[in-house]
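[job 0412] stage=fold_complex status=start
inputs:
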Amino acid sequence: MNHSREVKALIVFAAIIAYALLFNHYDNLQKNRVRQLSPVMPEIIYKSALGFLEQIGAESLFIKTKVFFGGLEPSAPIDNPRTYADYYKVIVSLHPEFMDTYHFSESILPWTGEELTRLNNQILIRGVETHPDYFMLYFYLGFNHFYFLKNYKKAATYFWQASEKKDAPSWLGHLAATLSAQGGDIIGGLLLLRAMEHSETSEQIKKRYQSEIVEYKKAVTVQQAMNAFVSRNQRFPATLDELTPEFLPALPVFSDEFKLIYAPPELRMVRNSEQ
Amino acid sequence: MTANLTNILSLARIIFLDGIRRYALLGLLLLSLFSEAMGLFFMDFVSHDVGRASSDFLFSIMWLGGMLFLLFHAVQVIAWDEERGVIYSILSRPLSRSAYVIGVFVGLAVLLTLLLLSLGLVAYLTLNWIQDALDPIYFPVFSSSHFILTWLGIVVAQLTILSVIMLFSGLVRGGFPVLLLSLAYYAICTGLPTVRESIESETATNGGNESTLIFLKLLSSIFPDLTRLDYKNSVLSDMLPLSVTEISTDFSIVSLYAIIMMTFACMAYVRRDLQ
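[job 0412] stage=fold_complex status=done
writing structure:
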């Protein structure tokens, strides 16, 4: 009887030791394997299954991506950016109110290529629909259009929208005006600058805006002359010199800060430090 | 009438006293409170929208605590009465079967409300503490009135599920079948709105069978969308998610549904062969 009990105890002890060894071995293997973020299920499955727990489900998915991203080596490339994008799309669909998704999505997706920048912009637009008064989301959209997609006009639109929101820094409006002119919409840029000048309370900044408005007005005269040239000749001038003297007495001289760039059919005004 | 009411309240009192004496229920309360405390760790995973994530977490714990109560206590309490023969001694007294159903429902409803009240109180204090501890940017708004509205939404939704459990208990013998039916009912209620939305949008774009839509509408009236009482997103907002009329309509629809289910439950018990 006692002998049998000892044998049972020995078997249990051996099983525990075997389990501990196997567990240790498995755990060491896990450390060395290449980590992959598992694909996310379609949003309809989460929506159908979660019900009252939709918000916490979305936040759990977000934490999963965040913990996974945090576990990567600092210099490691992101192997599967598309998977992150899929996660963020699902999370935003389940819980568009949750702000962290937009901040993280912006910090990861646009840096991996144009396709995911556009996808990230869709995610941000969902954010703008849910949080129309939060300036950062417009700022992200403006930044993506400016820096990654080189669409200055759209960037200017989003920066201007951002500048109109509460807590937005005032320089956003100025940035919008500059980008608007840089994107070829000089008249739009002038209008934005005038609005900025009108609402500015600091005399020093007001004076700066006024000096820039003078430069923008010069560019607008060139734009108007070019429009007249096009309506008369049904073509764009080859160079701006073609506009003088019939459409413009002389090409205006700009301050050191700005210059005109003409690449038919587009006339852009840029700061001297930029192209 | 007064005698009937006294009988109902006496039975409800027995159910209530029996419930608070059960270690399993105390365990559920402690587990839920412990889980709510874990919310303080959960917020560590979130960088920006800490208030929202904490609020979602605490309300989800409340919902899960209530569901565990319904599925593993309420279902069993009703089944025990029959399995242990308690129902015969109760019904041998001057108590109608309908009064028995209402008495059990009231007893369980009081227990459920008390459980949710304890969890709600701890959640309220926790959220207040978190808001005080954080910079306003991470937890800008906490609306006490919206917190109470969200809590009420959970209570009414779970009381509705309790009324359906009462009906299933009248139709089917044994705790396990009722548990399965209740789970299936909850799954359909959760998934049906997504299915309906998906088919409606497909019908709107590609055209489709009107009778399918009518059938889905009918199904939705039998398996109501209880998430219409989910107001979690409004806790961190100054504005109500819907108008007062819409909120009152949501509560009225679900409450009327629960009353109809209780009426059916009474009818089922009246016709039931208890031998």
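[job 0412] summary: The two ends of chain A are 93 Å apart (CA to CA).
[job 0412] exit 0
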